[in-house]
Amino acid sequence: MKKTLLTAILMSIFSLAMLLGSTFAWFSETITVENNVIKTGKFDLEAQFKGTGATWYQLTSDQGVLFETDNAKPGDTAESHLKLTNKGTLDMKVYFEIIDEVAISDYMKANLLLHFTYKNQTFTLNYQQLQSYSNDFYFVLPGMNTSEVLSNATEQIKVVWELNPAMTVADGAGQTIMFTLKLKAIQADRTVADFN
After folding, report:
1. The pTM is what?
2. Pick from 11, 48, 62, 173: CA 20 to 30 A from residue 181's CA?
3. What's the sign of the alpha-carbon dihedral 164, 169, 171, 177?
4. DSSP secondary-structure letter at 85?
5. Quick one: fold of 45-195?
6. What is the CA radius of gyration of the chain?
7. Residues contacting 107, CB < 8 A, separation 6+
8. 85: left (phi over 0), alpha (psi -120 to 50) or beta
9. Phi, psi (rounded to 5 degrees) for 12
10. Sign of torsion, CA 119 124 127 129?
11. What is the pLDDT of residues 109-127, one digit of tens each?
């Protein structure tokens, strides 16, 4: 009788489990959306330069000198031109930075002025101000898409260096100023601090 009672209890538990299990059934459906595409924008800055002549040259890391002057004195200037073209599809900000190639006195850094003329506005910065990308000086170049004309993404910038006419010859005499002018392009909706 114990065996029959135990079998009856086990069958009751099994039946109850089956009953409870069947009440928790549910329906489900899965929908799959295929062929999703995300294309990233193109980011491509082209730089060209020219001096006083009419010919534009590709500006690359291994060629291109914007300025080369001998025997400069306070008040002297030299002019060069940059043509920046955004060949990509994303808007970009272009920053400038100066990097010393030889040691330059702080006096000379404060008195070497760079004038950038862009869209009929001239911005003047001294050498020290251009030694970091952290300044707020940049140019915005719109990206190209299929409906835009190439000239919309190209800007010409006149760059003039000048030795401050107010500087004294004695303090600046006999120095060689050699520097690299570096261009850094970033997305237009970002700041240069995001990349430092």
Report:
1. 0.70
2. 173
3. positive
4. E
5. Immunoglobulin-like (2.60.40)
6. 34
7. 167, 171, 172
8. beta
9. -65, -45
10. negative
11. 888 888 888 888 888 888 8
